[in-house]
Amino acid sequence: MPSEPFGAPVPQESGTPWAPVPYRVSERTQxxxxxxxxxxxxxxxxxxxxxxxxxxxxxYAPNIGEAAISIAGSPSDLRRWVHTVRSAGKTTDALAQxxxxxxxxxxxPYGKGWPLHEAEGKDLLLVVGGLGLPPxxxxxxEVLSHRDRFRRVExxxxxxxxxxxxxxxxIQRWRGRDDLRFQVTVDRAGTEWYGDVxxxxxxxxxxxxxxxSTVAFLxxxxxxxxxxxxxxxxxxxxxxxxxxxxxxxxKCGIGQCGHCQxxxxxxCRDGPVLPYASVERFLAxxxx
Amino acid sequence: MSPAPSDTAGVLERKDLGRLLEVLNGAGYRxxxxxxxxxxxxxxxxxxxxxxxxxxxxxxxxxxxRLERSEDGRVFDFNVGPHSWKKYLFPxxxxxWSTRQEGNRLQVAxxxxxxxxxxxxxxxxxxxxxxxxxxxxxxxxxxVDPTYSQRRSSALIIAxxxxxxxPTCFCxxxxxxxxxxxxxxxxxxxxxxxxxxxxxxxxxxxxxxxLLRQLPLRAGTEEDQGDLGAQRARVRAGIQRSLPVxxxxxxxxxNLEHPRWETVGRRCLACxxxxxxxxxxxxxxxxxxxxxxxxxxxxxRRWDSCFNLAFSQLHxxxxxxxxxxxxxxxxxxxxxxxxxxxxxxxxxxxxxxxTWCPVGIDLTEELAALRAKAPSTPTTAQGAKA
Lengths: 288, 386
Fold this sequence. Notes:
The complex is a heterodimer. Chain A is of the alpha/beta class. Helix content of chain A is 18%, strand content 30%. In chain A, strands 10-9-8-7-11-12-15 form a 7-stranded mixed beta sheet, sandwiched between helices. In chain A, strands 4-3-6-1-2-5 form a 6-stranded antiparallel beta sheet. Chain A is built from 6 helices and 15 strands. By secondary structure, chain B is α+β, with helices and mostly antiparallel strands. Chain B has 2 domains: 9-237, no CATH class; 248-382, no CATH class. Chain B is built from 13 helices and 16 strands. Chain B has an 8-stranded mixed beta sheet, sandwiched between helices. A 4-stranded antiparallel beta sheet of chain B has the order 7-6-14-13, with no helix packed on it. In chain B, helix 8 (248-254) packs across helix 11 and helix 9 packs across helix 11. Chain B is globular, with a radius of gyration of 23 Å. Chain B starts with 8 loop residues before the first strand and ends in a 15-residue tail after the last helix.
């Protein structure tokens, strides 16, 4: 018998794509009773990674856990992450209730964003329901810093009640501009509200755009996005130019935990922004 | 005198099988493979050949698994059990990272990816080789999972070709078996006949050839090839189930609202057995375990299942609250959307999900029902007798 040694290979240590990076809470704004906007500055280095409007981060509340939260700040402000978080469980409670000076973990950004380039030279519509506004706010910042690349810019934002509106002051300023039109509607309101009442899809007949040359970004509850897409299709917007941001439970953000499946898509990897045409038939199914 | 073996193939007599374990243990591998425990053949550490399920056979059907003694002394005369190799490459509970808080600092340390010793998988069946290659796409095709990748690249794969088939097997229709053809370092084919009890050994890689050189082999004979041919024919003849692997994707896409989902949903207990036993199911959740002082915390990854209610929780509700919708998610993913996500089916035809389902749900039967024309009567009239 030949007897060359047969030795096991020496294993090589490798890093982990999962570990969060520490950030310090530099600002916190209470938006509504259960929702806050937090700003996070890096503890190491002076700037955050780049991101595209529509992407999200995994935010880590130490000792509690992680949650996928969309990025709500300006892409050109490289010094901080801005996130708007609604309390809806243990982790988001902790994230929404941080204090300035607290340290959180961040990993990301993850996912595919809004295809802003497709809207260049066209009318751009943003139709938003509830907490769908944070993932579209970076789009507005981008559009306003390159305003000449787009034709009409129309936003319709619907919330349940006036008390549920986020970015209240900023919306006032946006509403004062003459290079975009920002409509706000609420499902129900008391006598203190002088604005529109009704679901956001009811604002669509009043939006100004040329259907054949319009790109629309929708973000909100699935039923709202379905109704909006239908109303836009009726006004001549091509289905291929309607985009939605989908939401499912996410644990990893890197396509490996399986939680965010939506039919053929892993939303953390293939989405969260997807062409409406590719999700339309799945949105018609119950409990998909 | 037997002629000399080649450097890629030869024949190992049954009495020399122990030598294989000695060489592997001596070379610094942690050898894992089949052994009998708790009434089943599971995968665990092997120190000597005595640890192998010598003289044991399994009997499998939908919802049934039994071990029984065989008299012929075969070593690998059984089919796959409840365990799969994923438990080594994708551990059921694994530390991803830990944190330490000190004042306004947060230190993050990655969890361990290494085991003390590289693994040697002894007894990997053809369907399981296919499962490893599917898992490679999941854990290394996009973002690379360091734990998986480190263990996978250092693991030595010793395949064993099936010498028997279970009624739950359907690997031929999935094009994954039963013959072992690729994806291993070394392969063994156990033969027992009047010509003797022996193993045909084949090396497919440098590591496999280095191992092969350490074994006392003789060259193969015509009798060996004859026995192998007869054994393969017997194994194939025993396989009764099949699944239309190429049709499955479109069939599922076209039948997402088929009443059959409700029918199977009434039988399914959402116990998660199928997903735990499946060699390719990879879903996981995370668990945060802080110390009592709150100074340190550990962040674990743990196997999860799309059959759990909390799996699809979004804000305060679960998207898939009915069991029917969870079964649809599982099957549509396994046989359908897996193609979209990873360019392959997620099923290898091992039959574990059929055997280990406590109520005997059989995915080949479910797919056949979708293929049949939708019933004209409402599903409720069909009851749960499917």
